[in-house]
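The step that takes the researchers longest sounds almost clerical: writing a folded protein down as plain text. The outcome of that step, for a single protein, is printed below.
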Amino acid sequence: MHYRKIGQTDLDVSVIGVGTWQFGGEWGVDFSQNQVDQILNQAQQEGINLLDTAECYGDHLSEQLIGDYLKRHNREDWIVATKFGHHFHSAFERTRHVDADSVLKQLDASLKALNTDYIDLYQSHSLTDDEFNNDKLWTMLDKQKQAGKIRYLGLSLQNEPSVHQTKAAKSVGADALQVVYNRLTREPEADIFPIAEQENLGVLARVPLASGYLSGKYKPGDSFSTGDVRSRHDQEKQIQMLKTVEKITQEELPEGTAMATWALAWCLQHRAVTTVIPGCKTPEQVSKNASAAKLDLVSKEHPQFVK
């Protein structure tokens, strides 16, 4: 495993993390604590130290499953990132709560669910620019940093990431960005990544396997069960994405390399990207994800490489 520093923080994160939206039960599997334990044990064996979760992955359910694990293991072995701004009601309904008082309550609820006294990276969760422009919110969060509840702040940007928020990140005390970035979604390269490099902001690439379309498991015409969030995706767009994946397989994928492994390493070759946070449903998938760190695309010459 390789490690990179998030921006100007002292957080040395594994280039492969564990995204945990799936623990909230919205990706076709309801996870038991034992299943989560096996996944996180395997992640640690692979040298992975970054867990990314959120308050609305099943109304703190993902956080609770992680927290139960953390209370039985060494908290210091892990860099825990979570988010604020939503409240989970069902797989199809969330409400937004981004005022300072509500976020403080969310922070305390996340700390309780995670069985921890502090969160390493606390991220805004897909705020609009109007929601972001809130001095009271960022003043409150700065006080929580001073109180030791938060080590660092980050911005998890909407699927169409805000240039305004990226430029203003440092002014609100944020050291990291989280953006959708993968071989099928390259828009951040144009506007977001140049700012991130200039401002020395860490970048967490979420959805690096394009919601599984880059996993190598699906072909045009495949469908998803109603309990899977991908069943709500536009059908025409889904077909086009899978056709593009077929073309990538034929023209870009090195012979003998698994599509998912290559797709993660592809993200990590960009100078702005610190780490990728793919989801996983089994310990075997954790190992396959971790193997991406060994591909030649993941250079030790990366500017954030930790020696």
Remarks:
- Residues 26 and 271 are 32 Å apart (CA to CA).
- The longest helix spans residues 235-251.
